[in-house]
Specification:
The chain is of the alpha+beta class and 115 residues long. It is built from five helices and two strands. It has a two-stranded antiparallel ribbon with strand order 1-2. The chain is globular and about 50 Å long. It binds zinc ion.
Length: 115
């Protein structure tokens, strides 16, 4: 099997996840990880339990969207936790941006100290 995966331009989630290429890559990742969650080692069976997660979101690194090194098998629980952590605000993504602190706290003081 040719495992070389070429990046492609991605403008739309719907299109992306319906592309045959994604299904092929997803299958490769699941087989590589032996249908086990790479975090908790739970066996995942079938599409409902197995999530192929982008370590770096496509919004940040679209060029790695189909890179096997950027993909991992997760169970649903770990996938949700992983996204919650990303939203919690470390480093990498626009997922964090949706959770920006509001302008001020309950007492009316600015929540963020501006420089
Ligand atoms: Zn898991």
């Amino acid at each position: 099997m040719d495992q070389r995966v070429r990046p492609m331009s991605l403008d739309d989630d719907h299109l992306f996840y319906n592309r045959k290429r994604w299904h092929d890559v997803r299958q490769i990742v699941l087989l590589r990880d032996n249908w086990h969650c790479v975090i908790c080692n739970t066996k995942v069976r079938g599409k409902r339990e197995a999530v192929v997660d982008h370590k770096l979101p496509r919004s940040i690194r679209p060029d790695l969207a189909l890179d096997l090194d950027n993909l991992r098998t997760l169970c649903v629980v770990c996938h949700n936790q992983s996204h919650a952590e990303k939203q919690g605000g470390n480093s990498t993504g626009e997922r964090v941006e949706r959770f920006r602190p509001k302008g001020c706290d309950l007492d009316g003081w600015p929540a963020e100290v501006s420089r």
